[in-house]
Amino acid sequence: MQTEYALGTREEKRVFYKYTVKITGPIALQNLMDAAVGSADVIMLSFVSQTALAASSLAGQVMFVLQMLLYGISSGASVLSAQYWGKGDRHAVERVMGLSLRVTVLISALFTLAAAAAPGMIMRIFTSDADLIAAGCDYLRAVSAAYLLGGFSTVYLSVMRSVERVRVSAALHCGAVILNVLLNACFIFGIGPFPKLGIVGVALATSVTRLLEFAACLIDNRFCRVIRLRIHDLLARGGQLMRDFVRYSVPAAANDIIWGLAFSVYSVILGHLSSDIVAANSVASVVRNLGSVVCFGVSSSAAIILGKTMGYGRLKEAREYGRRFAWLSVLTALAGGVVILLSRPLVLRFMHYYVTVTDTVRSELSVMLLINSYYVIGQSVNTMLICGIFRAGGDVRFGLICDIISMWCYAVPMGLLCAFVLKLPEMWVYFVLCLDEFVKMPVVVAHYKKRGWLRNITRDIS
């Protein structure tokens, strides 16, 4: 972002926030649509059975782990893409995209094979309930193809966002989400000529949607005049650029997989307590995601804007922009917490009158929503600093260290201790698990103030 106004003037700030809204809006819409399809799944499956709802939540952890890994790969690609885009080196961006997609396809294919060939083994990691395992196996077999197809689309669209094609990226993804919701209804309930498949319908709808989204990405690539994926970039030796990609993507991917695996362990802990808390958590997670769409959107736009600015070599401006984004994360988090609190009575009313679940599920959901109303504050600030500001300048290792300590040295051991040794009530276990973001926040803020993330990491490659 370049302006003719001096940094800090009213006109310059107006241009900055206008540009931020322009970038954030489509990304937030995309996040909202992702949260919406999760909401649709929960609502529709709640009319099928509590078993279907809980099983889809547990089986969905496989997709969650893959998405965290893909987000890490995308982050590494985005760090380099945004900075080289700011530098004006389009060929380097195309090479980064080819390298990142090559890695993505290989990893996603492994997840597809695992879900198709060994779904029972995967489900037994999350629960010992035979009904949940059986339903989850059916889900994983039907959704397995979506892992490979969705992996390609996720990284491709992430690179498109890095070169400021946020509207195109959002349009393609939001169209896919709308189709996903419609197909969910058709396959779950057997509308029109579609068979009534219940939980399998959710998985099948996801696979069909990912196939069409993949096709749309290929069509977009064919006609894109900004940057384009070419076969020789997909297969070419990476050289120094590959070493840079590995340098920034591996710690970012490790960070996100560590974070994702920890959340999966949280699900394992809850899954071995009762199906009630699993069902309640599946609904609470959806509401939390709805409350944090803008927070995560601003974080993604920060990575794009700061990366581009540092790629230009304008570090003074990047420092000021980082400060503004840090405050925006606090404001959007507070707004997200208010959204969760305002939606709480509506969600509880819906669960009481329209959904067949136990009283325990409704009671635990009520408490979970209160906890999540302040949990999003820690989540938003940490995500902005670690995934937005730090990664924009190639500072990817710090977040990995933070999450290893806060999640694997605190939250996971404490959760296991409280659940299976001290045998505390389920809601106390959930409360302890939700303290992880606040454990690391003071250290994250202190690291931000040192400004070690303020770097131009581009090279003369093309």
- Please, how many domains? 1
H/E series: HHHHHHHHHHHHHHHH
Please describe the biggest sheet, giving its number of strands, its sense, and whether it closes into a barrel. none
Q: Structural class of the secondary elements?
A: mainly alpha
| Measured distance between first and last alpha carbons | 23 Å
Specify the helix fraction band: over 70%
**What form results from the Cα inertia axes?**
globular
Number of helices: 16
Strand content: under 5%
Low-confidence stretches: none
Question: Average pLDDT across residues?
Answer: 88
Q: Please count the beta strands (DSSP E, at least 2 residues each).
A: 0
Any idea what the radius of gyration is? Answer: 22 Å
Strand-helix topology:
Elements: H1 10-46, H2 50-87, H3 90-117, H4 119-126, H5 130-162, H6 166-189, H7 199-223, H8 231-235, H9 239-271, H10 275-291, H11 293-312, H12 315-353, H13 359-392, H14 397-421, H15 426-433, H16 436-450
Helix pairs in contact: 1-6, 1-10, 1-11, 2-3, 2-5, 2-9, 2-10, 2-11, 3-5, 4-5, 5-6, 5-7, 6-7, 9-14, 10-12, 10-13, 11-12, 11-13, 12-13, 13-15, 13-16, 14-15, 14-16
Could you describe the 3D structure shown?
With 462 residues, the chain is mainly alpha-helical. Helix content is 84%, strand content 0%. It has 16 helices and no strands. The chain has one domain.
